[in-house]
Amino acid sequence: AQSVTQPDIHITVSEGASLELRCNYSYGATPYLFWYVQSPGQGLQLLLKYFSGDTLVQGIKGFEAEFKRSQSSFNLRKPSVHWSDAAEYFCAVAPSTAFYFGTGTSLTVIP
Amino acid sequence: GAVVSQHPSWVICKSGTSVKIECRSLDFQATTMFWYRQFPKQSLMLMATSNEGSKATYEQGVEKDKFLINHASLTLSTLTVTSAHPEDSSFYICSARGGSGTSSYNEQFFGPGTRLTVL
Q1: What CA–CA distances, in Å, run from B95 to A5, A10, B51?
Q2: A105, B50, B54, B103: which is deepest, by most CB within 10 A?
Q3: Do B115 and A90 touch (CB under 8 A)?
Q4: Residue A91 near residue A33 (C-beta atoms within 8 A)
Protein backbone atom coordinates (compact mmCIF):
# COMPACT_ATOMS: atom_id res chain seq x y z
CA ALA A 1 0.00 0.00 0.00
CA GLN A 2 1.12 3.54 -0.65
CA SER A 3 2.24 5.31 2.50
CA VAL A 4 4.44 7.89 4.13
CA THR A 5 6.07 6.90 7.39
CA GLN A 6 7.71 9.04 10.01
CA PRO A 7 8.87 6.46 12.53
CA ASP A 8 9.61 8.91 15.32
CA ILE A 9 6.54 10.42 16.93
CA HIS A 10 8.52 12.56 19.31
CA ILE A 11 12.19 13.52 19.52
CA THR A 12 14.00 15.49 22.21
CA VAL A 13 17.39 17.03 21.57
CA SER A 14 19.60 19.45 23.40
CA GLU A 15 20.15 22.87 21.94
CA GLY A 16 23.25 22.79 19.76
CA ALA A 17 23.02 19.08 19.11
CA SER A 18 22.52 17.62 15.67
CA LEU A 19 19.14 16.43 14.46
CA GLU A 20 17.87 13.85 12.03
CA LEU A 21 14.19 13.24 11.35
CA ARG A 22 13.31 10.16 9.36
CA CYS A 23 10.86 9.81 6.51
CA ASN A 24 10.18 6.77 4.39
CA TYR A 25 7.70 6.44 1.58
CA SER A 26 6.18 3.63 -0.37
CA TYR A 27 5.17 4.55 -3.89
CA GLY A 28 5.75 3.01 -7.28
CA ALA A 29 7.92 5.78 -8.65
CA THR A 30 9.90 8.57 -7.04
CA PRO A 31 7.42 11.18 -6.00
CA TYR A 32 8.11 14.79 -5.27
CA LEU A 33 9.24 15.07 -1.65
CA PHE A 34 8.79 17.84 0.87
CA TRP A 35 9.46 18.73 4.47
CA TYR A 36 7.24 21.19 6.31
CA VAL A 37 7.35 22.66 9.79
CA GLN A 38 4.30 23.66 11.80
CA SER A 39 4.29 25.70 14.98
CA PRO A 40 1.30 25.29 17.33
CA GLY A 41 -1.88 26.72 15.87
CA GLN A 42 -0.11 27.79 12.71
CA GLY A 43 -0.09 26.72 9.11
CA LEU A 44 2.67 24.87 7.36
CA GLN A 45 5.96 26.37 6.32
CA LEU A 46 7.98 24.72 3.58
CA LEU A 47 11.51 23.86 4.68
CA LEU A 48 12.73 22.22 1.49
CA LYS A 49 11.71 20.10 -1.45
CA TYR A 50 13.12 17.53 -3.84
CA PHE A 51 11.99 17.10 -7.40
CA SER A 52 15.02 15.68 -9.16
CA GLY A 53 18.76 16.13 -9.54
CA ASP A 54 21.14 16.50 -6.62
CA THR A 55 19.95 14.20 -3.88
CA LEU A 56 21.12 16.49 -1.10
CA VAL A 57 18.88 19.52 -0.91
CA GLN A 58 19.34 22.61 1.18
CA GLY A 59 16.45 24.40 2.79
CA ILE A 60 15.70 27.32 4.99
CA LYS A 61 16.77 27.73 8.63
CA GLY A 62 19.86 25.58 8.12
CA PHE A 63 17.98 22.39 7.29
CA GLU A 64 18.97 19.90 4.64
CA ALA A 65 17.56 16.59 3.46
CA GLU A 66 18.96 13.69 1.54
CA PHE A 67 16.98 11.58 -0.88
CA LYS A 68 18.04 7.95 -0.99
CA ARG A 69 16.24 6.06 -3.70
CA SER A 70 17.47 2.64 -2.57
CA GLN A 71 16.00 3.21 0.87
CA SER A 72 12.93 5.18 -0.24
CA SER A 73 13.91 7.73 2.35
CA PHE A 74 14.06 11.49 2.60
CA ASN A 75 15.55 12.28 6.00
CA LEU A 76 15.77 15.81 7.34
CA ARG A 77 18.91 16.97 9.12
CA LYS A 78 20.27 19.98 10.92
CA PRO A 79 23.79 20.12 12.34
CA SER A 80 22.99 22.36 15.30
CA VAL A 81 19.48 22.76 16.66
CA HIS A 82 18.20 26.04 18.06
CA TRP A 83 15.47 26.38 20.67
CA SER A 84 13.26 28.02 18.05
CA ASP A 85 13.29 24.80 16.03
CA ALA A 86 10.88 23.19 18.50
CA ALA A 87 7.79 22.40 16.41
CA GLU A 88 6.00 19.67 14.51
CA TYR A 89 7.69 18.44 11.36
CA PHE A 90 5.86 16.78 8.50
CA CYS A 91 7.23 14.88 5.57
CA ALA A 92 5.02 14.95 2.49
CA VAL A 93 5.10 13.13 -0.80
CA ALA A 94 3.33 13.99 -4.02
CA PRO A 95 3.13 11.02 -6.35
CA SER A 96 0.58 12.89 -8.41
CA THR A 97 -1.32 16.10 -7.88
CA ALA A 98 -2.24 15.40 -4.27
CA PHE A 99 -0.01 15.56 -1.24
CA TYR A 100 0.15 12.85 1.37
CA PHE A 101 1.59 13.62 4.76
CA GLY A 102 3.38 11.53 7.29
CA THR A 103 2.08 11.44 10.83
CA GLY A 104 4.56 14.06 11.93
CA THR A 105 7.45 14.23 14.38
CA SER A 106 7.22 16.52 17.36
CA LEU A 107 10.56 18.09 18.22
CA THR A 108 11.38 19.29 21.73
CA VAL A 109 14.58 21.26 22.29
CA ILE A 110 16.00 21.38 25.79
CA PRO A 111 18.43 24.10 26.90
CA GLY B 1 6.65 33.87 -3.18
CA ALA B 2 3.18 32.47 -3.56
CA VAL B 3 0.87 33.47 -0.74
CA VAL B 4 -2.35 31.80 0.29
CA SER B 5 -4.71 33.30 2.82
CA GLN B 6 -7.64 31.88 4.73
CA HIS B 7 -10.55 33.60 6.34
CA PRO B 8 -11.56 33.45 9.07
CA SER B 9 -8.61 32.27 11.10
CA TRP B 10 -10.87 31.12 13.91
CA VAL B 11 -14.60 30.58 14.03
CA ILE B 12 -16.91 29.41 16.78
CA CYS B 13 -20.44 28.39 15.88
CA LYS B 14 -23.45 26.67 17.32
CA SER B 15 -24.26 23.10 16.48
CA GLY B 16 -26.53 22.88 13.44
CA THR B 17 -25.31 26.03 11.75
CA SER B 18 -23.25 26.24 8.59
CA VAL B 19 -19.81 27.81 8.36
CA LYS B 20 -18.00 29.02 5.27
CA ILE B 21 -14.20 29.16 5.08
CA GLU B 22 -12.47 31.05 2.32
CA CYS B 23 -9.13 30.25 0.74
CA ARG B 24 -7.49 32.79 -1.53
CA SER B 25 -4.34 32.75 -3.61
CA LEU B 26 -3.07 36.30 -3.39
CA ASP B 27 -0.38 36.55 -6.03
CA PHE B 28 -0.91 33.66 -8.42
CA GLN B 29 -3.71 31.87 -10.17
CA ALA B 30 -4.58 28.66 -8.41
CA THR B 31 -5.75 26.11 -10.91
CA THR B 32 -6.09 23.53 -8.19
CA MET B 33 -6.90 23.93 -4.53
CA PHE B 34 -6.84 21.36 -1.80
CA TRP B 35 -8.60 21.15 1.55
CA TYR B 36 -7.13 19.36 4.52
CA ARG B 37 -8.32 18.63 7.99
CA GLN B 38 -6.05 18.31 10.98
CA PHE B 39 -7.03 17.04 14.41
CA PRO B 40 -4.93 18.04 17.42
CA LYS B 41 -1.49 16.48 17.39
CA GLN B 42 -2.27 14.59 14.20
CA SER B 43 -1.25 14.87 10.60
CA LEU B 44 -3.08 16.59 7.78
CA MET B 45 -5.70 14.51 6.07
CA LEU B 46 -6.63 15.42 2.52
CA MET B 47 -10.35 16.00 2.26
CA ALA B 48 -10.82 17.05 -1.32
CA THR B 49 -9.20 18.42 -4.44
CA SER B 50 -10.88 21.07 -6.51
CA ASN B 51 -10.07 22.42 -9.93
CA GLU B 52 -11.33 25.80 -10.96
CA GLY B 53 -14.72 25.52 -12.58
CA SER B 54 -15.12 21.82 -11.83
CA LYS B 55 -16.70 19.76 -9.10
CA ALA B 56 -14.41 18.81 -6.27
CA THR B 57 -13.03 15.32 -5.94
CA TYR B 58 -13.49 14.02 -2.43
CA GLU B 59 -11.31 11.52 -0.64
CA GLN B 60 -12.85 8.31 0.53
CA GLY B 61 -14.85 8.76 3.70
CA VAL B 62 -15.41 12.50 3.30
CA GLU B 63 -19.07 13.46 3.05
CA LYS B 64 -19.44 15.73 0.07
CA ASP B 65 -22.90 16.88 1.14
CA LYS B 66 -21.51 17.98 4.47
CA PHE B 67 -18.34 19.62 3.22
CA LEU B 68 -19.34 21.71 0.23
CA ILE B 69 -16.45 22.98 -1.85
CA ASN B 70 -16.70 25.68 -4.45
CA HIS B 71 -13.82 26.81 -6.66
CA ALA B 72 -15.50 29.39 -8.81
CA SER B 73 -12.45 31.47 -9.66
CA LEU B 74 -8.70 31.04 -10.04
CA THR B 75 -8.05 32.81 -6.76
CA LEU B 76 -10.84 31.66 -4.48
CA SER B 77 -12.10 28.38 -3.10
CA THR B 78 -14.60 28.01 -0.30
CA LEU B 79 -15.34 25.18 2.08
CA THR B 80 -18.75 25.20 3.70
CA VAL B 81 -19.31 22.93 6.66
CA THR B 82 -23.05 22.37 6.64
CA SER B 83 -25.04 21.61 9.78
CA ALA B 84 -21.88 21.58 11.83
CA HIS B 85 -21.61 19.38 14.88
CA PRO B 86 -19.00 19.25 17.65
CA GLU B 87 -17.20 16.39 15.93
CA ASP B 88 -16.53 18.72 13.00
CA SER B 89 -14.37 20.88 15.24
CA SER B 90 -10.94 20.80 13.73
CA PHE B 91 -8.20 22.79 12.05
CA TYR B 92 -8.93 23.20 8.34
CA ILE B 93 -6.05 24.05 6.02
CA CYS B 94 -6.22 24.85 2.34
CA SER B 95 -3.47 24.82 -0.21
CA ALA B 96 -3.18 25.93 -3.79
CA ARG B 97 -1.04 25.32 -6.81
CA GLY B 98 -0.76 26.97 -10.17
CA GLY B 99 -1.41 25.58 -13.61
CA SER B 100 0.79 23.36 -15.71
CA GLY B 101 3.78 25.24 -17.02
CA THR B 102 3.85 27.75 -14.21
CA SER B 103 6.45 28.00 -11.47
CA SER B 104 3.82 27.16 -8.89
CA TYR B 105 2.69 23.91 -10.50
CA ASN B 106 4.91 21.39 -8.77
CA GLU B 107 4.25 22.31 -5.20
CA GLN B 108 1.42 23.38 -2.98
CA PHE B 109 1.30 26.61 -1.05
CA PHE B 110 -0.52 26.37 2.23
CA GLY B 111 -2.81 28.79 3.95
CA PRO B 112 -2.44 29.54 7.66
CA GLY B 113 -5.43 27.41 8.60
CA THR B 114 -8.85 28.00 10.11
CA ARG B 115 -9.74 26.68 13.51
CA LEU B 116 -13.39 25.66 13.72
CA THR B 117 -15.00 25.11 17.09
CA VAL B 118 -18.57 23.86 17.12
CA LEU B 119 -20.37 24.23 20.41
Answers
A1: 22, 26, 12
A2: B50
A3: no
A4: yes
pLDDT grade for A2, boundaries at 50, 70 and 90: low
- Strands A105-110 and A10-14, sheet pairing: parallel
Q: Do B34 and A43 touch (CB under 8 A)?
A: no
The answer, for B26 touching chain A at a CB cutoff of 8 Å, is: no
Considering only residues A2 and B15, tell me which one the structure prediction assigns the higher pLDDT.
B15
Q: Estimate to the nearest angstrom the gap between the alpha carbon of B32 and the chain centroid.
A: 11
Contact B113, B92 (CB under 8 A): yes
The predicted-structure confidence for A46-83, as pLDDT tens digits, reads as follows 999 999 889 999 999 999 999 999 999 999 999 999 99
Q: Name the interface residues of A facing B (CB cutoff 8 Å).
A: 32, 34, 36, 41-44, 46, 49, 51, 90, 94, 97-104, 106
- What ranges in B16-73 are assigned the alpha helix state H? none
Give me the pLDDT at residue B104, please.
Answer: 65
> Does the beta carbon of B22 lie under 8 angstroms from any beta carbon of chain A?
no
Q: How far is CA B60 from CA B9, B47, B57, B90, B108, in A?
A: 27, 8, 10, 18, 21
If one compares B24 and B27, the residue with the highest pLDDT of the two is: B24
| Pair A71, A24: CB distance under 8 Å | yes
**Which of B44, B49, B100, B117 would you mutate first to test chain A, the one with the most A CBs within 10 A?**
B44
